[in-house]
Amino acid sequence: MIKKHLITCSVILVSVVITKLFICSTTEKNSPVNKPHFGNYITAVASENKGYNFADETVPVSNKKVSKRINVSLRKHRSDEETSAMLGRKASKLFPIIEPILVAYGIPEDFKYIPLVESGLKAGVSPKGAAGWWQFMPGTARTYGLKVNSGKDERLNLRRSTIAACKYLRDLKDEVGSWTLAAAAYNCGSPRIRHAINKHNKGNYYLMSLNRETAGYVYKLIAMKKTIEKPGSIVNQRYLATYVNPTELLTVN
């Protein structure tokens, strides 16, 4: 009698276990699984790649010509890894000095890339007579308060020349109407930019007919920005750890 009872209990227990296993299996099969949506990932990456701007002014990459020029400029900058690494090392030391001055004068941070494009962060003198981090010509430098004579050349002083550049850029923006055009005017002068504005391009740099150097100038700045700011770059690794007091930087002796 006891034996029969044990057999009956065993059968009941096995039945219960099998039933539970079946229920769990069915539940897992029918329940939604939180898998990553690959389509959303592609959209996010595409959106990131298309999110180009300069000085918070959008780059119209929907225009095929603009998109092509952006890509060409990026390839040129990223193909030379050695030069990019060298510029990154210099930028990591100098950006902490340049950035607070730009902020103090209300200049968009993206203008810190001008010295990279203009001089490669070398405070030398060009064959045309431009000199320093911001490549000022002697006349423009004097106009904006820098001493340039046989005994002293303040174009070679990073802090003072950056202050002068900020004043110059504010004037350029007032003259040509946008920060993107101010960057272009930094390269060729405001008269040429004003002359190039017409009813067809409506002052849109990317649609304007300009000389070859100026037409590619802002693209170079954007490519430099993307190259220097990419994840893992030397600038991202180093320069954020450096603190510079803006008040000290703006005190000119």
Written overview of the protein:
- InterPro entries: Lysozyme-like_dom_sf, Transglycosylase_SLT_dom_1.
- This is Lytic transglycosylase domain-containing protein.
- Belongs to the transglycosylase Slt family.
- Residues 110-205 form the Transglycosylase SLT domain.
- It comes from Mucilaginibacter ginkgonis.
- With 253 residues, the chain is an all-alpha fold.
- It has a domain at 70-241: Orthogonal Bundle (Lysozyme).
- The protein is built from 13 helices and two strands.
- It has helices at residues 2-30, 38-50, 64-79, 81-104, 114-119, 138-143, 158-176, 179-188, 190-196, 212-215, 217-229, 234-238, 246-249; strands at residues 53-54, 57-58.
- Strands 1-2 form a two-stranded antiparallel sheet.
- A hairpin with a 2-residue loop joins strand 1 (53-54) and strand 2.
- The longest helix is centred in the N-terminal third of the chain and has 29 residues, at 2-30.
- The radius of gyration is 30 Å and the shape is globular.
Mean pLDDT: 78
CATH topology of the domain at 70-241: Lysozyme
Rg over alpha carbons: 30 Å
Uncertain segments of ≥5 residues (pLDDT<50)?
A: 2-7, 20-50, 237-253
Give the CATH architecture of the domain at 70-241: Orthogonal Bundle
Biggest beta sheet summary = 2 strands, antiparallel
Numbering strands along the chain, what is their spatial order in the largest sheet?
1-2
> What letter string, H or E per element, gives the SSE order?
HHEEHHHHHHHHHHH
- Helical segment count: 13
Helix content: 55-70%
Estimated share of beta-strand residues: under 5%
